[in-house]
């Protein structure tokens, strides 16, 4: 075992982690731990843009952005947080520009802006140009720019260090976070990092689904660690399905394509979104578009030999727009489906994309241990966190915004906390739990194969817990997930070595996936209404009387099959009363 | 170094169902785990695969169903994270961006695919190499915007043409396909290599940047741009289609004529 001592430890080196590191690293001694290399993080896969009411190309203001975010989230958004995000969005974009991000430019040389789903002028009148972008690789540019600035500031990275636990020490004032425990992939060694504050920025858990835009490595590690510590997770039943994944593959095609004018069509060529969202049509929020697409297919209007997808028509945009503003998605369609978007429409279907829920935090990134109290020294930001600025459905581009606004806030808060406090003693044997976990996976205790369990998990989640859900499908999913958890107790790995044991890594990741899938399904069963990304066929309407509240889940007891306790937390309202959601 | 060609059919229980239209391909993988092996070897695996499969799918098939010890990096699986650069049939590619149909000969008879680690970086295990020297070279060229004086309150203004000037080199994902395809880099690891120069280019030709001279001084060094022999391997290898050799030439020209 090796021991390290820092002021701040940041877990994860995607957009939120590195944005936090840039702030924290200039204020306190900071280490960033990532199971990948920073530039491999999935922020780099984001395409379309980052919204901010710069008003560079048309009238706009942050209040409209706030309203759109709240309405887009089907009123489950904490309105104080949404207001902060929309207000700070402007500086967040300008900060990135000053750090060097190469945004596309207007003819006047200002940052250019494009339309995006759910972002409107004057509370829903028409689509507004609010998304600042760099072709269709905005996430790539953000990730590279943040990494470049980490290099500039000499941020210390521990690459391929897989964090498996955090340290909570009991004090007179309750539990405080005192560090993190990591498994070094290169050597198999366990490292204990003592810290005054710890920031989770570990991203999502899209790999519970088969069809997903998420990377193989998005396995909800941070959420899983927090949940296993008995701390709550929030709103996990709200999972976003991005309308335009490449059919059958799930690879993301940006909503920016529709922002530039692309149109969704069914088998007969009809622009079906006109029926579902008469005002903003193809630029309705993602939950509405994904549900509409699924309905078109369910009702027999899907395209293709099996009528199981719809078509994204970009042909009228012309080769120049596609090659200059949407070059990457044009290439993805050509490479992976052998379809040229310049000449023919692209087969698309919703793909599991983004977790609205996660580790509950306040607007400073402090992690909640219940509805009212925080764990001092513990922070979270980005997709792994739930502030909640996305409510029941995140608007496109607001994730890149979230990581920059709340990554920055968490980084500042973590460093300031560290500078105002002394190190608290670590709990006894801080590495014991991780050592036992690794030893168990490596021991001979069964014949179950990790890939089989993962494949079956992803299949049941796709079939039973995706765009549309019912009591029956969710009960099937719950039954399946619990059976898979039971089988997981008997997994075996072939690689018993210490050096880059990615066999072991995948086994551990699967444990997190199973745990989070169960929370998602339990939450979806309990929420007997349809709201945002959670659509129940058997409860098709939003029920503000009973469900205008956040879900909070707590793990009860030890072990993988422990019970889940469900609690609720009120939504914060400022000035926007819930209305029917029409576009 | 001996090359063995033993075919493993797997010993980990039943395999997943073979999809309709699958053909059997032989995946020949360069293996080496210094924890247990004295020297590298070749392992071959027979895999049912579809023409639309990515090479990464084949590697996953081996890892998940035949040999869990096979080790490689991967993440996004669609060519934007840069984790899975490797030598596939002798050329540097991302395993998630090469489809089986692009590797099969027209008659469909050639069904052996060889996969090796990228060259010029120490092998840690199988297809996984030490990336530190690569990132060290990247960091050495000051790959960040350098400016002096007061920052403007709003964004810096940049014309569409000025933005276009360095667009090509902003696409780099630091996968190392270019650098590890360079014969000069293979023999002289101290050479910065194409990727570092691409990232220097990205800032040298950015109208907002004021650090061109510092970076050009660094690249004028014995391990800098003059090592480039213009073999174009790097340009061929780039999975993002960056004109790498052209970028290096532009940096050389900037040094010769002292202007960008």
Question: Describe it for me?
Answer:
Chain A: This is Succinate dehydrogenase flavoprotein subunit. Chain A: The modification Tele-8alpha-FAD histidine is found at residue 42. Chain A: Residues 454-583 form the Fumarate reductase/succinate dehydrogenase flavoprotein-like C-terminal domain. The complex is a heterodimer of chains A (583) and B (260). With 583 residues, chain A is an alpha/beta fold. In chain A, α5 (221-228) crosses α15 (502-526). The N and C termini of chain A lie far apart (57 Å). With 260 residues, chain B is an alpha/beta fold. Chain B is elongated, with a radius of gyration of 21 Å.
**Structural class, from helix and strand content of chain B?**
alpha/beta
Q: Total number of β-strand segments of chain B?
A: 8
The amount of beta strand of chain A, in percent, is: 15-25%
**Greatest contact pair?**
A-B, 58 and 61 residues
What does the main sheet of chain A amount to?
6 strands, mixed
Number of strands of chain A: 26
Q: What is the terminal separation of chain A in angstroms?
A: 57 Å
CATH uppermost class of the domain at 432-543 in chain A:
Mainly Alpha
Distance between the termini of chain B: 48 Å
The CATH superfamily of the domain at 432-543 in chain A bears the name Fumarate reductase/succinate dehydrogenase flavoprotein-like, C-terminal domain
* Residue share in β-strands of chain B: 5-15%
| Coarse shape of chain B | elongated
Number of helices of chain B: 9
Question: Main attributes?
Answer:
heterodimer; A: 583 residues; alpha/beta; Flavocytochrome C3, Chain A, domain 1; Methane Monooxygenase Hydroxylase, Chain G, domain 1; six-stranded mixed sheet; four-stranded mixed sheet; 16 helices; 35% helix; B: 260 residues; Ubiquitin-like (UB roll); Fumarate Reductase Iron-sulfur Protein, Chain B, domain 2; 2 domains; two-stranded antiparallel ribbon; 15% strand; elongated; disordered N terminus
